[in-house]
Design a protein that fits this description.
The structure is a homotetramer. By secondary structure, the first copy, chain A, is α/β, with parallel strands linked by helices. Helices cover 30% and strands 22% of the residues of chain A.
């Protein structure tokens, strides 16, 4: 058993990490923290009452390092990098769920803020296991991808080599409300979101550069996705529709099937994907339909699991030498 | 006061017609029918108990013609054209909410069934008032547009002259569940739709030819939209996202504003549109955002009103010489 | 036309007042205010963009008195009474939607705070038109009932004379989330409320004394209702279940029908009531079922309309000598 | 490992059984059937694609008996008893999720239909583990309780000895829509249920006699609960409010805590219970509040798990000599 810490236990991704790790056969939760401390896990999350309880400490790197070997950081960006730096100096492995180690320095500073841990940034590995498995196995710092880039990259990457590079790439992405986090806001108030749907940050979302960068890193092809995210009135789940134009007409269904034929957590579907089939799991479901040179690529993930916490545990599994799927759920919240 | 008939009173669009016409200052409901008769309006729709009641007859054209001068047909396609034909022969004005008179003969027969009223089909007018107002005023037969084409055409048409004609047009359209009608099906069962979202008939929906045909009719430009409809877990409302590529870069926001500057029922918005702002009204809200030559056009309508029943009453108003907006609601179901 | 003011235009009940009064044939909105001013109606409520616009002022009684004859106050309790007092001194009629004038002094001060307008409190009339119509017609100050008391009193009052006075009265009341107001809170966050349901302030809600007091005032019978409110994952609507025990077995369905036989806005139903049939209207639907001496009384209202804003306009109608139902909607938001 | 069969794999409770048993450390699914056969598990339930697959046979008792030692029957009542009888003759242990073995003969025949397996009915054990654990361990036939009786009995039973026997007992029970089963009906259509709530079979539901009978069996006290079930617009979950009157005033919170102090799957809460905390688990959460002799008892379960499938697996665990909680989830579907 390896001792693990969860920092940022109050939010949705913190809760999901706890829920996964409680039953994980190889990891043992020994440290739970948030920004204020002085509480317990079951006070933060009443659903865990009688299931799992533990003091929640005010986050402190050296205390963490005494009791754990690996840490999950479910913190806001900026807060995350300063804490990660301390942990890495103490030789603790880190899976960072924030944006802090996902981007090239320049891109990060353009879309977020000045970076405070440039040294570790150079060596961080992007935690998308289907594409970075070997590097993940050998790193001490994984930058866990965001939910939008995860669902977009897994759907888009198989087709990048076939695209007409002069044509636009459009991504229409729909997220459950939990994706906006636990902080109260107009956008997450029931009355504003229920029976409603709307886009936000259309064509300007800061997840676009994350997608562009990784596509280039993995294919050597420059893209500039036009990204339009929307909130939909569901609690969890994410559905992504990608619209692209092919250079040469390929058999898109075959391309997709071949590309992921050995992947445990990607399912190629015969029908358009839906949110509920992946909700509660680490799966990414993908479907593709073509009309001449026009392509509709359609993917679904659980935004809090494959888009955050279960993908983080897969990365931890790999970093610790376990099989990717140890302790990871494939059983959806259906019905 | 003009006497009006509603045929097809059991469904959602039939109910919406009744709700509008009860309070209409110029129309008087004198005939209500469905396919079986032998019931009353308040038995069909308990919400109208104590508000409006009337026998619901088994639909019969000659009986209708004795008591009404204009008829709304909220019938399934095929059933509609045989009934419309009878009414037109009896000199009754018809607003047909089905697909039967919307398409060119060839297109209709390819996507639906053999047409049984070719003669009237030639003279029917497409009831999109912003584009066909003069013809509507002088016709006896309006083919009321479908909800998907209404929301798509109103958003797309201002930009057609500016498009790169070699680039693909993508339409990602989301409909509330009422759009699937009242008939029980897996797709409209609560447990399948709630907390879920999924596309259907992706790139193959029979509303695409309706859009293509009308774009050509109005602009002389051939398009071939790639149309992907989805159901979202809301009862009413429709949100459409259109992704296109410009030939020459124009000021999209200005183009849009100028195009609709005199229209009463089209609102140009500064922010992405949402479903609730148009729900309960005849408005179409439109927003546009551009990124170089890439354009995101975003529209919202109430699928049952602007997408069916209130647009039908606007058409009836025009056919009878009234102002377009008489008796038409602008007050949304918010919150 | 009578000039009216709306104070407290930012919240849900303020919006509903505006929506009703825009189309009211006898009232003319001449003054709209909230606590900060410096905005417009359509900035506060984007759904009214292009429909109705007007400056929203910082609330000021003497400015209001210059342009309006009657004022609707949709303010928090406490804020309301100090403003109402000023208006009444200026001879403006007031319909107060807060709790400030609903209760006996002692009760008010026990459950809320010290009262600052005891003089007017003595003369205020409780705005439940079915029971206080004559007094409402002759008052300058109406205390508009809360949504829970409205739905409970209308259902309970017909049966009070038949009850076993030693048996407990239980009220299980379910409210849509808009009933909790527009202020952000954990209880109104989408993720906490969606796919969920829970009681709050069980047996301790401050709406119980409002119910007890009015029952006594109207029947001379002392009751002590056990009131358990819950939030349900719908935006608007309220469903109340009342469980009581009869002294002598009566024909409950007949008692109910007879009691309300002349009422325009109460409908007695043959089947359990539902939320959607009253949503968007001023109706209160009531159903009753009995099992020996056990009675289940079941009512439904729109919490924002019959439970607040449309009832307020009915009261204003009566205060100004109009028919109760002028400008009041009976057309539900169905489907 | 013990080989188990699931008969009735198409419905929601069948799916939940499969989901639990896939990962159960002691049970091995060897037979899956429904009424028609000729399909596979993943064709019935697309969420299990790539997770678990197996042919689904047309149900046949002797074939089942060749490959399994214990069978879960998730069949409609009536269909269940004829199949159970065959299995019991073949010496297969049966957990029946229908109503067929839950009631006394007379009661069953009054509320359902003539009974076709009277002999086994005499020996069936009611599968509410907190009250029948020893008998369950030694039976071959468990009648798994319905969801309404489970949530009601667990909340009511601790207080039965303290009740004023002349006062009425009222149960206001709210169920998620999945409780109405997978069959299409108006009541389960999205548009009718979304943004809505309504009671059905008020004071006449056939789950009342199940509750009355078990209370008498366990306490020797005759009760006659007044049961009012409602559907709420959530997919899964159940919330029950019980209103009763005490004979002598007891400390209700202490009574409740003491009663369940050793139970693994009952949690006594300090605040009103909610649906999400138990959703996805086998927990029953209970809260109680009193006001003099008036009591509000409030319980929450997952209708498909504690109200059906996970309780069934707990029963199977006990019948096979395992700990009650083996393979049973305590991790809720939160958020």
């Amino acid at each position: 058993m390896i001792n693990v810490a969860i920092v940022g236990a109050s939010g949705f991704t913190g809760l999901e990490l706890i829920k996964i790790l409680i039953n994980h056969p190889q990891f043992n939760i020994t440290y739970v923290a948030n920004s204020s401390g002085n509480t317990t896990v079951s006070q933060l999350h009443s659903c865990l009452d009688g299931v799992f309880d533990m003091d929640v400490k005010k986050a402190n790197a050296s205390q963490l390092a005494k009791v754990a070997d690996i840490a999950f950081l479910a913190l806001p960006h900026k807060a995350s990098m300063s804490f990660a730096k301390e942990l890495l100096d103490l030789n603790i492995k880190v899976i960072d769920l924030s944006a802090d180690y996902r981007l090239e320095l320049e891109t990060y500073e353009k879309f977020y803020c000045p970076h405070e841990d440039k040294n570790n940034l150079k060596h961080s590995i992007y935690g998308l296991p289907e594409f970075y498995e070997d590097q993940i196995k050998n790193t001490k710092l994984v930058a866990n991808p965001g939910c939008y880039p995860t669902a977009t990259l897994l759907a888009l990457l198989p087709f990048v080599p076939y695209l007409d590079q002069k044509a636009n790439i459009f991504v229409d992405a729909k997220s459950g409300v939990s994706g906006a986090g636990k902080k109260l806001s107009d956008i997450t108030a029931f009355v504003n979101t229920n029976e409603n749907m709307f886009a936000y940050n259309a064509m300007k979302h800061r997840h676009s550069p994350e997608i562009d960068e990784k596509v280039f890193e993995l294919t050597d092809i420059k893209v500039n996705v036009n990204f339009v995210p929307s909130l939909i009135p569901v609690t969890r789940g994410m559905l992504v529709s990608i619209y692209v134009t092919l250079e040469d007409i390929c058999d898109a269904k075959k391309v997709l099937k071949d590309f992921y034929k050995d992947e445990e957590f990607v399912r190629i579907k015969e029908n358009p994907v839906n949110i509920k089939d992946t909700s509660g799991t680490n799966f990414c479901d993908i479907f593709v339909e073509q009309n001449g040179n026009a392509l509709f690529i359609n993917s679904s993930i659980d935004n809090l699991l494959r888009g955050a916490s279960s993908q983080a545990v897969v990365n931890a599994n790999l970093m610790c030498g376990f099989e990717a799927g140890v302790g990871i759920s494939k059983i959806a919240y259906v019905p």
